[in-house]
Specification:
Layout: H1 2-5, H2 9-22, E1 36-45, E2 50-58, E3 61-69, E4 73-81, E5 86-89, E6 99-103, E7 108-112, H3 116-137, E8 173-174, E9 181-182, E10 189-191, E11 201-203, H4 205-218, E12 232-234, E13 266-267, H5 270-285
Antiparallel strand pairs: 1-2, 1-7, 1-13, 2-3, 3-4, 5-6, 6-7, 8-9, 10-11, 10-12
């Protein structure tokens, strides 16, 4: 089905429309062989609270962004190569229903659909795209993925020491290895997590010790560097922090974003052939 859509005029128009909705805040999405498979709104679990995000599924990438004006303008574009993605279904718990995890080496997060049917559709289409990509490339799916961050509101005290209460001054931080919400002193170390960044990242003390032990086991004793030379660092100002709020670029408040009614996602395929025939017929009749 995707192969038939590659050179369709409708596909080119759809991709151009997505680019125009992101405007200068997004990157070019039109590439040879790229197909827009589907689009729709999903609720993304951000560090502060769940927020609606517009998602676009292509045959090789997954794109999402903040909704400024529904179907007209989006910003904060994120592009995820599908070859790096692993999906994991989530059980329904309380208000959080019809969800699944999108895992990659650099970032992992939960999303929720409006209904169980939409969840099934999204997951089936994404899985199919991943399967086709890996089959064509001969690559293996990634074995390591970034931790899913625990939302801020699920931790009133540090998940490491179990003592520190979070306040305006005692800010929350996230361990980049396990995703736990921890206080400054319990996340005062950094470690180089190559799948996520080229720079050392904040980790909790427990993960720091475990990572150091794993690193020591993997390096022969005569090649081990002294502790002072390791690619780790202490976070400046652990209580106030290198950044009192950890970076999550699409977790900003959208004060000007109005609530929009829910629209069912659109997945392109069987209707494409009919649309093309009608387009050609109308041209021929002129």
């Amino acid at each position: 089905m995707v192969d038939r859509l590659v050179n369709s005029e409708a596909n080119a128009r759809r991709i151009a429309m997505v680019e125009s909705c992101f405007g200068s805040s997004g990157q070019s999405l039109a590439e040879q062989g790229r197909v827009l498979v589907g689009e729709g709104v999903l609720t993304k679990m951000c560090r502060k609270k769940p927020k609606a995000r517009q998602f676009f599924l292509f045959n090789d990438i997954l794109v999402y962004g903040n909704i400024v004006i529904n179907k007209k303008k989006y910003n904060k574009q994120h592009v995820i190569p599908l070859e790096e993605v692993k999906l994991e279904s989530l059980r329904d718990e309380g208000q959080y229903r019809n969800g699944w995890l999108i895992r990659t080496a650099s970032k992992s997060f939960a999303v929720y659909a409006a209904t169980s049917t939409e969840k099934e559709e999204w997951m089936a289409h994404i899985e199919k795209c991943i399967e086709d990509l890996l089959r064509k490339s001969g690559k293996q799916p990634p074995s390591e993925h970034a931790a899913v961050w625990v939302p801020d509101n699920e931790a009133t005290i540090c998940m490491h020491c179990k003592k520190t209460q979070f306040t305006v001054l005692n800010r929350r931080h996230h361990c980049r290895k396990c995703g736990s919400v921890v206080c400054g002193p319990c996340s005062s170390k950094k470690f180089l997590l190559r799948g996520q960044s080229e720079k050392p990242l904040r980790v909790c003390l427990q993960c720091y010790d475990e990572l150091n032990r794993a690193q020591s086991r993997s390096i022969p004793p005569n090649q081990q560097r002294p502790p002072a030379a390791k690619a780790t660092d202490t976070v400046a100002g652990a209580s106030g922090g290198e950044s009192s709020q950890d970076d999550d670029s699409d977790d900003e408040d959208e004060r000007n974003t109005a609530e929009e009614k829910h629209d069912e996602p659109k997945f392109y395929g069987d209707g494409e052939k009919t649309e093309e025939i009608n387009n050609h017929s109308s041209k021929d009749s002129k």
